[in-house]
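Appendix B, Record 12. Input sequence as logged:
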Amino acid sequence: MTHSADCPSDGQLRIVVVGGGTAGWMSAATLKRRLKCHVTVIESDRVPSIGVGEATIPAIVDWIENMGVAEDEFIRRTGATYKLAIRFDNWVEPTHRYWHPFGICGSPIDGLDLIHTWRRGVRQGWLPADSKYTDFSFQRELCELGRGPREAGQPSLAHNYAFHLDAGKLATFLQEIAVAEGVNHIIGDVCGANLDACGDIQSLTLNEQSAVAAELFIDCSGFAGALIQKVMRSEWVDWSDQLICDRAITMRRPQVQICQGEKSHEDGPVVLPPYTISTGMKSGWSWQIPLHQTTGCGYVFSSAHLSDEEARDELIGLAGGDFDTTETKVVPMRVGMRPESWVGNCVSIGLSAGFVEPLESTGIFLVQRALDEFVECLPTTGNNLSFVDSCDTRSFNQRMTEVYHQVRDFVLMHYVVSRRRDTPFWREAATVLIPESLQLLLEEYTSTGRVRLPERDPTFLDVNHHYILSPAGIHPGRVPGHPEPDTARTQQQAAFLQHIQSTHTDIASKLPSHRSLMDAIHL
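Logged structural output:
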């Protein structure tokens, strides 16, 4: 017998999501809310979760608002803290540190990003030689002081922010949102698919359960690709020759241990950093994601350069813990993507569609972006019988391919601008053959001062590239048509930069510590 979970007779579109976790439940909740259709999630109870802590980018705030979820409730339910930046340690060189904060840096000057004025100030000597571009970022100032972006009960003074999340709690919360929206939930294992004459999926066969029929099927089964790979045979393009890390080892540790000994400007230890810490390691990099109660830690590494046991020891040595009793988990990674992540009536979202190592916390964003593009490529009229033929699968695949390429290039850029050559891993990671798209971006940046961005919804903006390239000593060229300012204008600009810094420090110093803000919200 074949049926959908609630056997609809109202003619509404039926969507089946295979797989739970963040991708599956976010997809189900979003599609149920936006399409007003029938959504069923088929979730196996034999698939373990991957993450212990997960970081996001500001796009998550849009999703929370669109779903009508109160921010404080979201924070409480997911064990969250604020994320205002990523701090990169030992990336450019073994003892180097730099920041990638969210949001703009200062303010544009004379129609150009502040980086051009800052760079000229350092070059001409009216800014200190050790001045940094991020000295003019409000989010970086909050991070240095260990402050939250707002008072409890008040809106954020930082216009761009994200969250650190407990991955398990997040999945549970997303499931509750989806079920509250009316999503059906089936616990079971998909063991086969029934196809029609055109090769589209008509229904899915479950172990010891009736088949489940639908018009569209969303594959959120992770690297397994239960539908998109095993049924629809969509090609996977491997990027492991460019991004050479292929494994991660994860662990959780007490939150109170994070950042011991680190000092803020005036107030002593930063006991709950509002930022992710990414540390360059012997054969890869580690993350530390500070949650309200614990810290999620991981080491992304290359198995060609390091064994699982060596990676475990190196991670525990950095993060702290007992070498004999600390529980760790090894997660194989498959770096690449599917140029056709929508085939027929099957759409892959999340790890089944593609994966780029989580250096810039883009995992959840890629799920959100795929859902946005999916909805936009659906027909606005027509009945279910002609629905699949009317979907704009070509545009979806082109757009998502572009998005994954952007993420790949931006993550790869961190490696290729590094000056580290102290281990075999860094010598290889920094000297891989880079894609033409990234090569052109770097050439145009240094010659014209412009960042080559896609015309449609770029994932990373000019300022994001400035944050990564500047610390590595790669500076934008002079923008054509913008002459050097005269002495009077230069003095005005110098005073303006000083005003930016003093204003940021004044505002940030009056905000509560990140720890006290989180304690107030999590009560």
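DSSP finds 15 helices and 23 strands in the chain.
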